[in-house]
Amino acid sequence: MTAKEYQSAAGKAIPHSKAARNIPTAFVVGGLLCVIGQAIIDLALFYGLEKDVASACGSISLIILSALLTGFNVYDNIAKYAGAGTLVPITGFANSMVSPAMEFKSEGYILGLGAKMFSIAGPVLVYGISASVIYGLILVLMGG
Amino acid sequence: MAVRIGRYTLKLDRPTSIIGYAAAGSRKEAKGPLGKFFDYIDEDSTFGEKTWEKAESTLQKCVINKAIKKAGVTPGDIDVLLAGDLLNQCIGSTYGARQMGIPYVGLYGACSTMAESLLLAALFTDCGLASRCVAATSSHFCSAERQFRFPLEYGGQRTPTAQWTVTGAGACVTALQSGAPYVREVTIGTIEDYGICDINNMGAAMAPAAYATLLHYFNDTGTRPEDFDLILTGDLGMIGTQLLHQLMDEAKLSITANHKDCGLLIYDRLEQDVHAGGSGCGCAASVLCAYILPQLQEGLLKDVLFLATGAMMSPTSVQQGESIPGIAHLLHLSHTDGKEDNIC
C-alpha cells in the first residue's frame, strides 16, 4: 500500500461525528443560552436600566455564569454534549479564558496564569479586532 | 550474548527473565475491564501531589518500587533504570528517579516507551552489562492533555478518532534467571510515516509502524502470525487496529485471529466514553504488566509478540504542518526460554 493509498484507507476508516445528535443539541443549548441572556436584558430593562447598560448586564451575567461553571468543573461536561451550543455564545469565550487560567496557575501568576490564559482566546481577539478595524476602514472609505 | 538475526531482529542468547513487574493506575483505569488486575490503584489522580507532573512522577516511582519489591530485590540491587514518559524533557521519569540512587537512562519513544525500555533492559541483562535492570514508563491524562491538547476544563468536543491518555504506569525488572516470562527476541522499530497529519488520529499514524515491525520480525525469524498465542499492540485504538489488519491482510499475514490492542483492552470503549480507545505510554505498560505478564508466567499464554507503538511528533511539528512519524518496537515474550527447541 502506498502512502497515498494508505491515507485514503485511513480516511475511510474514520467514523463520522454524530451530526444527527450534535447539531440539534447545539441548536437547543445555544438557543437556550440566548434566551437566558435575553431574559436578563429584559429584566434589567424592567428595572429601569438604559438599553446599552441592560445589554452589558446580559453579557456580563453570562460571562460570570460560564466562569463559575468552569471553576466548578461543570462547564466541560455540558460542552461535551452541547458542542457549538456552548462554544459559539459569549460563554464559550469566557470558558476559553478561565480554563487555561485555572490549568496554568501551577506555573505561577505571571508566566502561567497571566500568559497562558490567552492561549486559546488570544487568536480570537487578534483576528476579531483586526477584522473590526478593516471593517471600520471600509466603512469610512465608503463614506458610511 | 544477543545475536543479530536478519536485518532488524536480535535474538537473546541467555534466559533473560522478567523477575518482577507491576502496574499502577487511577480511577478510570480501575473502572475498566482490567481494573482488578492492577497492583496499585489510587482513586485520586493527583496521587497526593500539587501538580499533574508531580503526580505522574509519584505514580512512576510507586510502580518501580512495587516491581522491585515483587522481584524480591532492593533498589540497591538494580544496576540500570531505563525509563521515559510523554512529558517535555521526560520529567515524569527523572523527577520520579531523584531519590532512587540507581544509574538512570532516560528514554523518549512516545507511547512505545514500554517496549523500548524493556528491550534495552533485556539486552543489557543478556549481554551481562547489568545483573538486574528496571524498565519503566508512565503517562497521566491530565499532564498529557495540558502539554499536547487543551486545558482540562476547556469545553470542547473530542473527535471520534481521539484516544484517551491512560493515567497509568508499568515497570519490569529483568535478570538472568530461570522463571517465566522470558524475553526471547527483540526487534527495534523503524520510523514509518505514511503522511497522516491529524493529531487526533494517532492510531492511523502509528499502524504503518506496527505493520513494518511485524513484517521485519516475521521475515527475520521465519515465523508466521499463527505461531503466537497473542500479538499485542500498544495503543492503536479502534481505527489503528482496523488499518493494521488491512495492511497485514494485504501482506498475506493476517493477524485478525490473535491480535489484541492494549488501547481497546484497558477501557470499555463505549461505556467509558474514550472514543477510539486508550493511549499513552501507560496504556501498553499497564496492560502488559497487569494482564499479560501474569498469564505468561502461569503458562496461560505461551508466546506473545508485544509491540508498543509511538507517535513521534511534538506540538511544534504538528503546528508546522508536518505529518506524524510512527515507531513500533517488538519483543517476543515467552513462557519458555527456548532452549528446549534446540534440544529437540
Question: Which features characterize this protein?
Answer:
heterodimer, A: 8 helices, B: about 350 residues, alpha/beta, Peroxisomal Thiolase, Chain A, domain 1, twelve-stranded mixed beta sheet, 11 helices, globular
What string gives the helices and strands of chain B in order? EEHEHEHEHEHEEEHEHEHEHEHEH
Helix coverage percent of chain A: over 70%
List the helices and strands of chain A in order.
Answer: HHHHHHHH
Please tell me what the overall shape of chain B is: globular
Structural class of chain B: alpha/beta
Total number of beta strands of chain B? 14
Q: What is the terminal-to-terminal distance of chain A?
A: 59 Å
- Through-space gap between termini of chain B: 22 Å
Mean pLDDT of chain B: 95
Structural category of chain A: mainly alpha
**Low-confidence regions of chain A:** none
**Known CATH architecture of the largest domain in chain B:** 3-Layer(aba) Sandwich
Give a written overview of the molecule.
The complex is a heterodimer of chains A (144) and B (344). The termini of chain A are far apart. In chain A, 80% of the residues lie in helices and 0% in strands. Chain A is mostly helical and 144 residues long. Chain B is of the alpha/beta class. Chain B has two domains: 3-175, Stage V sporulation protein AD (Peroxisomal Thiolase, Chain A, domain 1, 3-Layer(aba) Sandwich); 181-343, Peroxisomal Thiolase, Chain A, domain 1 (3-Layer(aba) Sandwich). At the A-B interface, helix 1, helix 4 and helix 6 of A face helix 7 of B.
List the helices and strands and how they pair.
The complex is a heterodimer of chains A (144) and B (344).
Chain A: H1 3-13, H2 19-46, H3 51-71, H4 75-82, H5 84-87, H6 90-103, H7 109-116, H8 121-141
Chain B: E1 3-5, E2 9-26, H1 27-31, E3 40-42, H2 52-70, E4 80-84, H3 91-96, E5 104-107, H4 113-126, E6 132-139, H5 141-148, E7 164-165, E8 168-176, E9 182-187, H6 202-221, E10 230-233, H7 237-250, E11 259-261, H8 262-265, E12 278-279, H9 281-298, E13 303-311, H10 315-319, E14 326-334, H11 339-343
Parallel strand pairs in B: 2-3, 4-5, 4-6, 7-12, 10-11, 10-13
Antiparallel strand pairs in B: 1-2, 2-8, 2-9, 6-8, 9-14, 13-14
Helix pairs in contact in B: 6-7
